[in-house]
Structures are given as structure tokens and as C-alpha cells.
Amino acid sequence: MAQVIMIASGKGGTGKSTFATYLATELAINKYKTLLIELDAGLRSIDVISGTGQQAVYDLGDVLENRCDVYKAMITSPHTENLKIIAAPYRDYNADFSRFRRVTDSVYRDFDYIIIDTAAGLGAPFQAACRTAVMGIIVITPDIISVRDGRLVSDEMYNSGVKDIRLVINKFVQQTFRHSGFEDMDEIIDATCARLLGVIPMSRRIAVNAIRGEQLSPSSQEKQIFTAVAQRVTGKDVQIII
Ligand SMILES: Nc1ncnc2c1ncn2[C@@H]1O[C@H](COP(=O)(O)OP(=O)(O)OP(=O)(O)O)[C@@H](O)[C@H]1O
Ligand SMILES: [Mg+2]
Q1: Which end of the chain, N or C, is less surrounded by CB atoms within 10 Å?
Q2: pTM summary value
């Protein structure tokens, strides 16, 4: 039975979809059957980042509107058979997410993990994900606005019943951290009320690979960081690499 994990942020563009895709890929490479769903209305990016490109004939909107079976909307990752992807409803700004729980309920026996990449903010996609997730991962960038918004997301998740809340600090740059408005990492963790899952550097490699739908090189530091993050998600006690 799948563990359902939602990825969220207050502010847009913090790196949710990139993180969700690399986390899902990492889990799948490590033999966990994983389903990655992009829960956003009108916008898509996971199809590009995951390398599935233009393959999506059906998307989440079709599933929610009963135009196609959920399995028909799943695309297999070109990197691993264990990862299936459901694309966000493209151009469908009025997608009705109230039926989303039924979608995850109908497939959760077939997967070990269901990763839900939500839209920024506390709107309908976020609320729908809260109704089904057991773990919430907040992706923030190390700046005062993103952290403040992250706290709102954290509180809203908690109040909606998602009690296991984790934090990813993305686009981290050591040299500029002192201008972030925070003394140290602990201050950010305290401000968001979430357990630290990982710190991901600002990385040209991540940005370039994401846009090409390619995997991270096995020898890269970024890949090692995602491996450690995925291990922590599965409950392994591994050190946080910064
Ligand atoms: N660690 C990183 N280093 C460098 N660039 C990154 C990193 N993570 C994400 N990016 C880049 O930041 C941009 C936004 O990433 P992404 O689309 O994953 O954010 P998002 O939070 O899903 O955005 P939205 O709120 O619009 O859904 C992309 O250009 C992506 O390549
Ligand atoms: Mg996104």
C-alpha cells in the first residue's frame, strides 16, 4: 500500500516539480514502485523534467472527468520501469480536484509511493493533496519570504491532518546565505516547524538536466544528495549532506 507524499510550497518556482521528479526517480531506481502525479491546473512541467516529453495523451484532468481510466493516463519513465507519471491537466484551468482522493485510493495498492507535486500556494491542488497525503514536504529557497510562506504551508498541512512535515531547502548557496536574513539553518527549521529532509545546492547541472529530462550523473554531488533524501524518505537514518 502506497505512502502518499505531497510536495508543496507557498511561493512559486522554489523547485517543487524538479525535486518531486528527482525524488520519485530515485525511489523508483531503488526498486520502489512509484507514481508521480502533477496536481496543477493549466500548467505542466513534470513531463519535461521526467523526460516523458510529448507522450501524454491523457492527463489528470481526463481521469478526474472520467474520460479515461487512471491506468491509461500513466506514462512510464524512460529511466525506470518502476516510475509511472500522470501529467497535470494542460490548459484546463477549471479542473475539479474534489475527486482527486478517489484517484489515489483507486491505485494505492499498486504502488509503494505516490508523490504528488502540487501547485504553489494553498489553493485547490494543495487542499486536494492534503486530503490524501500522510507526509508533506515543503520546498523552500533560503530567503525570508519563502520561509515565511513555508510556515503558512506547514501550519495549513498540519491543520488538514498531514502531521509528518519535512523541509527541503533548495537552491542553497553557501556564499550568499548570510544575506538570507537567517543566522543558520536551525533558524529556518524552527521558523517552518518542519523536520529537515535535505539541502539541495543551486546547481546548473540540476537546471540543465531538468530541462533536458535527463538523470543526474551518478558521480555528481547532486545525485548523492537526492539518494540520501530518498533514503531518509524511506525511513533510513542517513546523514544530511550540505
Ligand atoms: N537546485 C536547483 N538549482 C538550480 N536550478 C533549480 C534548482 N531547482 C529547481 N531549479 C530551477 O528552478 C526553476 C523552477 O523549478 P520548478 O519548476 O521545479 O519549480 P516549481 O516550484 O515546481 O514551480 P511552480 O511553483 O511554478 O510549480 C526551473 O527553471 C528549475 O530548473
Ligand atoms: Mg511545479
Answers
A1: N
A2: 0.97
CA of 182 to the centre of ligand 2 (A): 26
**Residue 184 falls within a domain, yes or no?**
no
Model confidence over 144-199: pLDDT tens digits?
999 999 999 999 999 999 999 999 999 999 988 888 888 889 999 999 999 999 99
Three cell numbers at 134?
Answer: 500522510
Query: 111: which 3 cell numbers?
Result: 504502488
118 Cβ inside 6 Å of ligand 1: no
Distance of alpha carbon 65 from the chain centroid:
24
CA distance 233 to 104: 19
Residue with CA nearest ligand 1 atom 16:
15
CATH label of the domain that carries residue 13: 3.40.50.300
- Identify the residue whose C-alpha is closest to ligand 1 atom 12: 15
CB atoms within 10 A of CB 119: 23
Q: Are β-strands 113-118 and 3-8 bridged in parallel, bridged antiparallel, or unpaired? A: parallel
Distance CA 178, CA 176 (A): 5
What's the domain range around 15?
A: 3-139+202-233
Ligand 1 within 6 A of CB of 199? no
